[in-house]
Specification:
CATH superfamily: NAD(P)-binding Rossmann-like Domain
Number of helices: 8
Helix content: 25-40%
Largest sheet: 6 strands, parallel
Oligomer: single chain
């Protein structure tokens, strides 16, 4: 992403010029363009899907330092998930003061996503972290409302839905809406540089596999090599 601009921009210009606050959940530590701190410039966020990833995504979004932001509404099918996410965010010492979800802005049920998005203004942000079966339905409504979107992966599980999501993405782009997906590797500068070097030195990659190890390095090798690896 571009470095922080020193010149302040309007709320609408901030979203138009690639600030992409919708992607802040994946890029919480990355500098974003500055916006004025006036009340009308505050970005309101709605969280649709309040499980563990939803609560984490909301915290990441509220952690941005680029401008005023608040969590305005929450939606889920299960009340215990919504309440757990709300309580966890409200008690968080870093973002708790930005959680402004009143009881009448906590929505339950399969149509709760509509009520949560209805609490936002055009150009605000909705976070979609529900199971993937609902993604295209929620994305469709967000586009109709003129909202910027951050959505978690995975997005689809089949070809027809994938094509539907691609078409929706084109509709969002036509409206100049910003849409981010939680594919963190795409936002890693080191991996971007690796991709560029591979393209320059090797060319098109037909197949590449990567593995990430969990736990101590020794435990990954001890079953194949005697002793401890050096």
């Amino acid at each position: 992403m571009n470095e922080t601009s020193k010149s302040a921009t309007s709320r609408r210009e901030f979203l138009k010029t690639g600030g992409q606050l919708a992607a802040a959940t994946a890029l919480a530590g990355v500098a974003l363009p500055h916006v004025h701190a006036a009340g009308s410039d505050t970005i309101s966020v709605a969280l649709v899907g309040c499980g563990g990833r939803g609560g984490g995504a909301a915290k990441d979004a509220l952690s941005t330092k680029s401008g005023p932001i608040r969590l305005a509404a929450m939606a889920d099918v299960f009340d215990y998930k919504l309440n757990n996410a709300f309580n966890g965010l409200k008690k968080d010492k870093d973002v708790g003061q930005k959680v402004e979800v009143t009881d009448d802005k906590k929505f339950l049920g399969f149509d709760a996503f509509k009520h949560a998005m209805d609490c936002l203004k055009k150009d605000d942000v909705v976070i979609l972290t529900t199971p993937l079966a609902f993604r295209w339905v929620h994305f469709t409504y967000a586009i109709q409302k003129g909202l910027n979107v951050f959505m978690e992966k995975p997005l689809t599980a089949d070809g027809p839905t994938t094509r539907r999501m691609i078409k929706l993405a084109e509709e969002a782009s036509a409206k100049n809406l910003k849409c981010g997906v939680g594919l963190m590797s795409r936002h890693s500068k080191s991996l971007q540089q690796l991709h560029d070097r591979l393209q320059e030195d090797i060319g098109d990659i037909v197949l590449m596999r990567g593995y990430r190890m969990h736990g101590p390095v020794g435990s990954a090798f001890s079953t194949k090599w005697p002793g401890k690896p050096t």
